[in-house]
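dude i think i finally got it to work??
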Amino acid sequence: MVAAKRVFSVKNFNKATMEDIAREAELSPGTIYLYFKNKEELFASLSLRILHYMNIRLEQVHNENFQEPEEKMKALKQALYEVYEFDPIVLINMFHLQSSETLRNLSPHLLSEIKDLSRSSFRSMSKIFEEGIKKGDFIDRHPVALADIVWALFSGIVLWEESKRLIDSKKDFLKSTLEIAFEIFRRGIKTYPDSINSVQTLNNFVYND
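look at this
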């Protein structure tokens, strides 16, 4: 699996082959097929580790009962950024995996485990919004839809910023872009306007094209 991660990081998921991974691991391709039926299964197994970590972090954010909904939103943003830092390569490839047909090639057991972890993570996210709606802090919209929007926001920014870094390695604005995106999203779902001082926080980020 360590060899697979190295190969995926260099060649990306689409170009990597089981033969490449076997060569990197100094094994025969047949040996790898004893454990994984195809490349998709091997990659999905790598993704389980980051999904477990994300599930734990989002549960932690949801269970911090002392925090107000807005504070939990800030904690949610930080948790997602920590998921990215935990393993950027696997996370980015996981985004591509989720948006492709490769999930159809997984065994029922592995696919079920991925679905369970994903559902648990989204449950934790949606409960954060559900609490805010019940307290009257957030607008009354379906909490699952709000969780979906946050995930789309997060994955989209990670993929876009990573593509910019491939062109220019000095462009690393992921954290500052996430800060701005979450601030705009947070203001958008509030039931009352921010103070002038809070609005000014958007201007405190250093962001150069």
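The domain at 46-192 is CATH 1.10.357.10 (Tetracycline Repressor; domain 2).
im so relieved honestly
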